[in-house]
Amino acid sequence: MNHLSEEQLILHYYGEEEDGGGAERHLGECEACRALYGSLQRALNVVDSLPVPERDAEYAERVWKRIEH
What we know:
This protein is mostly helical. 64% of the residues lie in helices and 0% in strands. α1 crosses α3. It is elongated.
């Protein structure tokens, strides 16, 4: 049995999987992937609950100056 990758599990979490529910079927059958998915869910739930910081009008210009070279 091939296990789901972390990327596949994250796409499943956000409802963006391309395989039409294959991840859900696999999670129903594979305890190892269910455990990994549970761990990812907990981490992503925390990340998703954090507030997005406000950015000032110069934010884009500062970022561009840091990465343009």
